[in-house]
Amino acid sequence: MRRRNLYGFEDRNTTPYRQVVRNNMLPRIFDELETRSDYRARVANIAAFNRKSETHLRGISCTAVKFGISFNTKFLNQANALVNIYLDGSVQVSTGATEMGQGVNTKIKQLVAEEFGVDPEMVIVMITSTEKNNNTSATAASSAADMNGGAAVDACVRIRERMAEVAAKNLNRPDSTHIVFADGLIYDERDRGQSYRWPELVKMCYLERVSLGERGFYSTKGIDWNADTGIGSPFLYFTQGAAVSEVEIDRFTGHMKILRSDLLMDIGKSINPGIDRGQITGAFVQGAGWLTNEELRYAPEGELQSHSPTTYKIPNIGDLPEIFNVDTIVNEENTVNIRGSKAVGEPPLLLGISVFMAVKNALSHVSHGEIPKISAPATGEEILKRLTEYATRPAAVGAGAASS
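Given the sequence above, the corresponding structure tokens read:
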């Protein structure tokens, strides 16, 4: 049913708010994930398991995400950066992005290093300060690397253009059209016989009084949103993905564990695959915990009882899927964002819904043909409550295979 209702299927690719979903990869993701996860065979195996087991239930589900990237408030979609090059060849970059463990500084470091063709160790990303970067937008909406990276690259491009002119002059070239910055060297791509090392060119530019600093700016193009009418294009692009999760439930205690999860995402061309993989796995586990473990409990007087790690259950190592497959597809057609990349912070969190829906699928095998009802979070107590209800309810006459 989900596959038949995907965006892009039979040319249905317009959202309710009338934005066209371009470069839609969901049909491809569903097709590939179905094969990679051996989905059909596992559905049949789970049905057979549930008919035989008197102690456990299993369930499986495939859910998708289409996550729009940009701030819905248009003016927030802007960023600035300050890039300075020093005589020892080091490059200092300041942006409005706040590093909180998500790796945004590493991505910015890589982007700046690539622009100048130097080792990333030559680039120093400064702590965020409004003394360097004014009127910064929040590091949110999964767009910090997009916007601040774009601003940093904008500054680098203009510095590099000036430096390329100096290089061309000293290489006796008529213009800088063919000047290349790569592997710490600067040369004319038509003749690599003569080149300058990066620190040498930096010193030459300084001696010729060429500015080695620049302020960069980025504003997200092509977005427009009317909050009054609910119509427009509030997002630059969509990060997409799908997940297949299989769970096992103890019929006597309601305890649930994730047997296997297969994730497949379109994140464009990754700037840093290691960081992105960490973001995908971490967000998925966070999403699974949000829908299965993390419950706010209040006393009758209104006092919050689940107020610390001793009473509020965040996912731990034991809550991870026993088999955890995470992969991305190659999407060469994504060109609207920096380096063809896509944001990956928040979107995978919603793939945790596959775990919740797998619990619901498991309960469908004992719900006497009814669509099972379960509230989030699907804690062990909540699952046991539903199992008890279905165990004490007589089977409906003519109930289907799900009740057997």
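The CA atoms of residues 71 and 141 lie 6 Å apart. Try to locate this feature in the token string yourself.
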